[in-house]
Every structure is written in C-alpha cells, then in structure tokens.
Amino acid sequence: MKRNALNITVGIVLFVIFVLLLFVFQVRTTQVAVVTTFGKATRPVTNAGAYFRWPWPIQEVHKFDERIHNFESKFEQVLTPDGYSLLIMVYAGWNISRPDVFFPRFGDSIQQAEENLEQVVRNAYSGVVGKHPFSHFISTDEKELKFVEIEQEILKRIQDDTKASGFGIDIKFLGIKKLGLPEGVTQLVFERMQSERQLQENRIKFEGERMAENIRSAANLESAKLLTEADAQASRIRSQGELEAAKSYEVFQKEPELANLLLKLTSLEMFLKGRTTLILDEGTPPLDLLKMTGRKQP
Amino acid sequence: MNGSSDHPELEKPGQRSAMQPIPETPDDPGSQALSDALRSSFKIIRVVMIALLVVFLFSGFFTVGTQEKAVILRFGKPVGTGERALLGPGFHWAFPYPIDEYVKIPVGQLQTVNSSIGWYATSPGAEAAQNEPPPRPSLNPATDGYVLTGDENIIHVRGTLLYRITEPGLRYTFDFTNTQAHVQNSFDNALLYAAAGFKVDDALTRDVAGFRDRVRARLNDLVAQYQLGITVDQINVQAIPPRQLTAAFAAVLEADVRRGKVLNDARSYENQTVSRARSEAQARINTGENERNRMVKEINAEAGRFTAFLPKYKANPRSFIEQRQIEVLQRVLTNVAEPLILTRRSDGKPHEIRLQLNQEQRPPKLPEAPKDEH
Fold this sequence. Notes:
heterodimer, A: alpha+beta, 4-stranded antiparallel β-sheet, 7 helices, rod-shaped, disordered C terminus, B: alpha+beta, Tetrahydropterin Synthase, Chain A, 15% strand
C-alpha cells in the first residue's frame, strides 16, 4: 500500500512536469518571442518570464535574440552634390522590437533581415549624402561641419523606411564608421599635400629669418637709444657740475689778480711735472743769487 | 532476501520474478555469489543516486570573484532590479537549471578595445620588425585605413581605449549581442569625427592633446547616447602623416625647429646687445658723474686755497707773488730731469744752444730709463 502511494506521487510529479513542458514556455531577459497559432503569428512576448501556451500542434513559440545587433554597411562610393566622390561606411545598432511583425517577414533568419536592412541603409545614405556638399563632412569651420546632422538624417530615414516596410525592427543608433576617397583621388591629394608642405616649409623658413632680423634690428635700435639717452644724461650731469662750479668762481671775483696768479702757478706746476729739460735764465729767482757770485769771480 | 529490499521502487517487477526462484537452491554456491553481487551493486547504485542528488543541489552554488558581480535569472528574468540585482563577491546559491541561471558580469575589470579604421595595412609583427611593405603611391580603400582632416588632408590615426563596465552592468551584459563591437564602432566614429574638424598640423603636432580631448568628448557623447553602460578610463591616440609624405612632413618639422633655433639666436643676440648697451650707458653716465664731482671738487679746492691766500696777498702783493714763484720753481726744479742754467756771456751776446729733440738717442748717462713723454 505504501509502495503504491509513492508510485502515484512520482507519477503525478512526472505528469505535472510533462504538462508544464507542454503548456509553459520561458522567455529569457535577452529574448523576445512570438506565439503562432496554426502557423499564424498571434501573440508577441517582449518581456522576460514564463508564459502559457497551447501545446503543439495548436501553438508554436519562436524565440528571437532581443539584444541590439551590430550592423555594418559596405564601404561604398556616393556622390556629393558638389561633385565629390566619397566612400562611406556606416554602423547601426538594431534589435527586434515587434516579433509578430518580424517573424512573418523574415522567419527565424537574422541574416535575411540584415540583407534587407543593408538595402535600406544604402538607399538612406545615398539619399542623404546627395544633399550635402563635401564641406559638411569635413571642415575646420564648426558651423560648416554637419557630421552629426548627417548621421541623424540617415538614421531618421532608415527608421522611417524600416517602419514603413514593416520589418518589425528598431534602429537604435547609427554612426559613420569610415569616410574615404576613391583610390585614384588619394594620389592627387598626396600631390597637393606635398606642394602644401613645401610651401609651408618655405614660409616657416622665411618667417623665421624675418622675425630674427626684426629682433636683431630692434635690439640694435634699443641699444642705440640707451646710449643716446645715457650721453644726454651724462652731459646734463656735466653741465650741472659746471653750474655748481660757476658758483664757486664767484669767490675769485674778490681778487682776480690773485686768482690768475694761483691758476698760473698751478698750471705751471702741472706742466712741468714730467721729466722735462728746463733751460733757465740766471735772472730767474732764486737763480739770481748765482748771478751775483758769478760777477765777482772774473 | 526478497523481503529485505530497501528500495523496492528501484527494482523492476520483471527482475523480481526472475530472482524469485534463486533461494530454492541455496546450496548452489554460484547462485549465492550472484545474489551477493546483485545486492552490493544495489548499494552502489543507491550511493550514486544520493551523490547525484547532492551534486544536483550543490550545483546551485557558485562563487563571485573580487573583480566581478553576478546576476541570477529566474525563469530568464533578473531577480531584483538595478543595483539590487547585483551579487557581490563571495559564495552564492541559486536554483539549478532550468529554474535559475546565473550570469557573471566583469564590472570594474579594465577592458581594451583598439580602433579598426585609420591605419594603413600592416601587421603588428611586421611593424615590430620594421619590415612593413613600402607605401604605394595611393591608398587602397579596401585595405588601407585613413581619415580625412578638416582641411582636406589624409592622415593615419589609431587608438587604444581602456574602459570599465559601469555598475550595475545589466545593460552592457544583456542588451547587446556584441558590446565590444559597439564600443569599437563608437571609438572609430570619435576618431573620424575629431579628424573631420581638425587641421592636419593641429592633429599631428600642434594640438595633439586637443585632438585627443575631442576624441574623448565625442566618445563620451556616443557612449551616453547609445547607453553602452561603460566608463571610459583612458584613451591613447596616435596620429601620423601618410607614409608617402613622411619626408615632406619631416622637412616642415625640421624647418620649424630651425626657425626656433634662428629665433633663439636672435633673442640671445638681443639680450647680449641690449645688456651690453645698458652697461655701456651706465658707464657713460658714471663718467659724467665723475667728471662733475672732480670739477666741483677741484674748483672748491682752488677756491679754498684762494680764500686762504687772500689776506696774505692783500697785505703785500709783491712779496707774496715772489714767494709763490720761488716755491713753485723749487718744487719744479726737483722734478726736472736736466736743468740747464744759462749764465750771461761776458760779451753780452746771446748763447747758441743746439737741441737734439729725439729723446731716444739721448746719451744713456741718465739715471732713469728714457721715457717718451715730457
């Protein structure tokens, strides 16, 4: 009897598990699912959790990766309205937002969806690039540069197109990954860059020489100015001295003859300071004393 | 034997009926051995069953390392929301699959992404060995990467990005099929965008830091816009001119360096000249000053002497003059090298004196060495 009860319990547990497997399905946080009833998509499931369903063959569950996929376009040539050929590659982040729309269109194939997306993206960037001159892609003028606006325009167009054609996907973001020029053009650019470099090299050289020359002549001018100022100041100082001296000269006016005498004596002394040969007449005092004795002798 | 079975549910009814006749021949040693073997194998199965159950329950245990966090998904849905869903480092338990599932998130671990556009076709090996293929005259868009600068020049750029997953990291882990690819695309876009607004010389040499800042600002914008759930830690950016023009760009740099040298030379000339002029000017002013002082001093001394002599002179001008005259002659005569005194000839005629004016040929009887001044 005890054995029977145990058997029944085990049986019930197994049955419950079987029923659960048939009637319940799980959607992971990274997934979305669509429930099909007799092959027709009837119920999208976009939130994670466990859900009820009728067993096969009434209902089937198709699960999709809900995460944001990375899409990268080819590197393709487009024409700007001002006649430049530009190579452009864009990337986009997209995910399946409406599995009930996605499934009937692409089945389980992400790849097929990306192939269709590729077409839409190409149309979008060809259209948008065709409206922007080359200077909107690259420019040193922030106002002229429309890089971000171009990305937004392409994104907007893809979003509209995918919605209109019922892809059941959402384009989350888009950016330009690569910009380039046709191979032949790069060579022309190199030639232009080469001549620009040469020009710049010369400009730098001459500019340097000119600036150096300016510095030198300014220095010469400055020093000349300094010296002239100094000379002017020195002569001012000298004339000050003369002015002071002139005050002292007034003293000599008391007895000009004495002043002259003293001046003469001083200059005589100065004049004869060196090794001089002096020829003197014996009449000069104090040699006049010699004359007196000489007269006595003969 | 047949009543002592502990786990009758492990035995299938068919087996039981097959085993029933065995005790009827207990003397058969072969049957005895068989039943012993069966009994011990049941024991082994029981042990294995228990072990499996234990393993099943314990498989729910997992450890989270110091550099990571973990999230438990119950029926595919995170348990808890936001920060509270995160399990820190340590020992944790979750229901075994298919009820629970745990996912580890390497929050805080530094991750690296390299840019994929902007560099010419090469390989790290060839680059390290300096064995890169020589540049062709043009760039093939399929293999050679480059970016266009704002002034329509071509340059090569590449970069390395270090980032961390920002907590809680749920978006980084669960919302993208390949988050690294999105990070890389954003980084590529940032390089492209930064170059598109920069002049070639600024990007390469004059404003390298500004270029990197622009890349970083753009990248941060994109990370926020795309909600990648990362924090940019460090960006390294390298930009070089196209290899086809290496020499031309080097020549400009060299000219730049040379200009710097020429200017430096000029500036040092400026310094020297001006400071020399300044000291010369000071010297001239000083000379003027000296002359003034000397002049004033001399005149003052003269005036002093004058004032001192004035009373004596006034008393007897004639004798004063004579006295002064004699005094001076006395001083002068002691200095004079060769005094010649002419006496008056007795016949009253003048003397005839011949002077040899060249001092060098003076007879060397003099006590002093000849000097050329007098």
